[in-house]
Amino acid sequence: RQGNPVSLQLFMLAVDTLSRLMRRAIDIGILQQLHPRRHMPTISLYADDVMLFCHATPGDVAAVKGILTLFEKVSGLQVNDAKSS
Fold it and tell me: I need a surface site. Which of 54, 58, 62, 63 has the fewest CB within 10 A?
């Protein structure tokens, strides 16, 4: 519940899961690493907003959509399509 002091901690736990899903997708080759020689973030957080980064390829976009669908199912959180591009 938004405003509850525990909400931020629960959100951070959920986003950690999302970050691990993204990392695992890169590790097993479902998602391309952004830069081959240096670790670049695939996820960025600010307050309660999350930004995901991937290559603009049909395969990577489909992979991210699949990861988000899985994340929604396991976390109970929902992606706001109006704020997504």
Answer: 58
